[in-house]
Every structure is written in C-alpha cells, then in structure tokens.
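Methods — Computational structure assignment.
A single polypeptide chain was analysed. Its primary sequence is given first, followed by the predicted tertiary structure written as structure tokens.
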Amino acid sequence: WDGRNLKNEKKKEGAEDRGSSAEDSDYENDADKYRPYKVTNYSRKYPENSQRRDFVVFLTHQCADKPFSDGDKVNLSQAIRKYAISGVLHLRPMNKYKVAITFDLSNNANTFLGHNKFLDELGLNASIPAADTEVTGVVKSVPVGLSNKNIFAMIGSSRNVIQVRRFMRRVRADGGEVAYIPTQTVAVTFASTQLPEYVYLDSWRHEVTQYVPPVKQCLKCQQFGHIAKFCKNNEVCSICSENHNYKACGADKQNPVCANCKGKHIAISASCPIKKNKIEENKIKSRTAAYADLFNEKSFPQLAARTAETYLENMLKSQSFLNMITQVIIKLVANKNESPINTETIRAAFQGTIRGNAQSKA
C-alpha cells in the first residue's frame, strides 16, 4: 500500500482529540456527528520557504461588527511606528470592517501575528488569508455512517489535514420543516496551497478533486460578488425585483421576475443564466493549475547552481516547448467534456504530445 509512506503522520499533540477509535454511535444527534471537525490549536502561518513576494495579514476589530473609522486608521499607523513593526510595505482597506497590512517577508508577517501587546492595545484580531496557506479538496464515496471526527482520525495524506466537513443536502418535509441529510461527499482542507492527488481512508484510496466555492450573492441587492453585510446598494426584492424586502412583496409569487436577468424565476434561483455563468467562472478559476502541479520532482534532472525559476525561464525561451504547451492546452480544452482537467489528464496530454512529436520527426 503506497499510502504507507505518507508524510502526514499523526502528531502526538492533540491525538486524543482526533478520537482514533471512537464509535460514531456515541453521538446523541446528527448535528454533533456531522459538525465540521478541525484540528485543535491550529493557526495559519506563512511557510518560511514561501516563494511569495509579499505577505498579507488581515486586521479586524475584536468587536466583529465595528467598522474601521478614520481615527482607527490613524491609530494603526501610529502604533506601527510606536512598536517599530518590521517589514511593513503598505496598508490598505479591504472593506469597512477589514484592513490589510502587507509585509516584505514571511517571518515579519508571522511575528506580527503574535504581537499581542500591539493587537490588544488597538482591540484588533490578526489573521492570514486562508487562500494563501490552505486549499480545500472534495472526496467522494465516503460512508455516511462515519462522523467528521472519525474521518479526520483515519485519513492519510501527503498534506497536513486541518479540517473535515461533510456536505449535507437540505430537504423540506411535507410539514414544511427543513432537514439536512448527509451525503457521501466530504470537503477536506489541507495546510498547503496544492492539493494531493489522493487521500487514504481506512486503506481505501480516494481521488481528491478541486473544491469549487459557491457563488457569492447578496441577499440585499441580489447582485453577485459580495454579501449583504458589505452591501452599499439599495434593497431589491428577490421575487419581483422592485425596491423592497421580499417579505413585504405583494406580487404574484407564481410569476417572479429575476433582478439580474429579468427571467421568470426568483433572483436566487440556480436556473438563472447569469448565476450559471458565475458558477462556470468559479470552476475555471478552481481548475487553474500551478506549474508545480504539471510535473513531479523527477520530471527534470536537477541542475547545479540553477534555480527552478531560472530553469523555467530558459524553457519558455524555446519555441518548440511553447508549441508543445499550446498543443496540450488545445487538446485539454477540446476534451474537457469527456475527462476532467487535473494532474493526471495534464500529464497524459503532455506524454501523448511528446510521443506524437517524436513520431512525426522520425
């Protein structure tokens, strides 16, 4: 079993919390059994060997609903000078509740996260953007009888697993009550920026696919890309698209009008063509492959006194290499409906292109 050599061996610290032999029947209800399970004492930090050029730290008030005023921004600048915070490149507002500080080095950003005196004086919380240090994948065919805690205990991976969350299907009973039914699909979050190809669950190998996040839609103005908490637009009814709350709507609910496409459905409907396009955009973004995903470490010989960046730069100067990449992209796009775009299909496309080029030259 090739999962035997996995890098992600269970750490002794917090091992009891993972519950390696707990019976799932011990849970009193499904709400506890299927509650997202996250590793204890985990906090995001930038890796020391990160290739990033800048390192962002988010700041929010300890009182979550408090916005940043002009006075808060002035106090923040003064505190940075007072405590001689190292490596600050610039500050910028993300929204009215969040400010970002950009650092030059990972160590400076990580050190700032632990500067409790600074943060407590200003009443702030500091955190690293999840997308900079974490990635979420989807694992299917996981037995519904397993709790998130037990999945976490049994899972083996080449990346450190920090959270397990089972997808629940929302259903409405005849009496109008809403219930949540567990599915066989599980979201697994890794402390990495690259997904592993597989994870192992009780000796069974499961393919990991990219998690596609849901489309953000504001329930106030019905537009996409933000949520109601940060909305500055006028309220729009999700039923008739007029300027009032849907609860006060007197229009015929059998003849709705979408606020976005003007179609005959409510604005939050999954059948909205604009929403469908947004979902496809999310899928494309999620499929974007990093260079490191295309080749494993044995794909090319190690060159002395030459960095990976230099080697890649030299390859891109080769017209034949660029032609090969173009052929691979065309092949993947043409076959996207027949097979998903992932590490395996990309590698196969490269191998097939290389063989085809070699035969044509022969």
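Note: The chain has a mean pLDDT of 81.
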